[in-house]
Amino acid sequence: MNFQLHHIHLLCSDLEKTIAFFTETLGASLVERKKFSNVDGAILDLNGTIVNLRIARDNEKISAGATAAQYGFHHIGLTVDDVEHAYQKLSAKGYVFSAPPKEAGKNKIAFFNGPDNITIELLQSIG
Q1: Which DSSP string corresponds to the chain?
Q2: Mean pLDDT for each 10-residue chunk of the chain (127 residues)?
Q3: The Cα angle at residue 6 between residues 74 and 3, in degrees rounded to 5
C-alpha cells in the first residue's frame, strides 16, 4: 500500500488573515472558498501542497494554544531557496522568529510564528 500526503487542514481564528498570510507572504494561491460542514473555510495551493483552512465550529472548544507542544502536530516545514533572505524578508514584515537561521546537518533552518502562532520551519538544503 502506498501512502502520500494529500493535504494539511488547519483551524484558524481569523480566516481572512490566514488566507492573506498564505497567499501574500508564502505565495500560495486561493483555489476556492468553501464550507467544511457548514463552517467557513478555504482551499489553498502552496506550490503543489493543498492547505485547507477553516474556522472553529460553534461546538468546538480550542483547548491548546498553538505555541504549546501537543500530540499530533508540531510544525509545518517549508523548503526555500535561501533561508537568510527569507529570514530578512519575513523579519522586516514583523514576523517573530523563535530560532534564527542556523546550520543543522546538511540543511540551514529557521523557525517563525505565523497566524495563531502556528510554528513554521524554513529549510534550505546546503549539502
Answers
A1: ------EEEEE-S-HHHHHHIIIIIT--EEEEEEEETTEEEEEEEETTEEEEEEPPPTT----S-TTS-BTTB--EEEE-S-HHHHHHHHHHTTPPEEEEEEEETTEEEEEEE-GGG-EEEEEEE--
A2: 86 94 97 94 96 88 62 86 96 95 96 92 93
A3: 90
Quote the pTM value.
0.86
C-alpha 82/C-alpha 100 separation (Å) is 13
Decide: 104 and 98 in contact? Cβ < 8 Å: no
| 10 contacts 53 by C-beta, under 8 angstroms | yes
> Considering just the CA atoms, what is the radius of gyration of the chain in Å?
15
Closest CA to 5 of 34, 37, 33, 46: 46
CA atoms within 13 Å, Cβ hemisphere of 23: 15
Distance CA 72, CA 25 (A): 26
Q: Which three cell numbers stand for residue 103?
A: 546550520
User: What pLDDT is recorded for position 60?
Assistant: 76
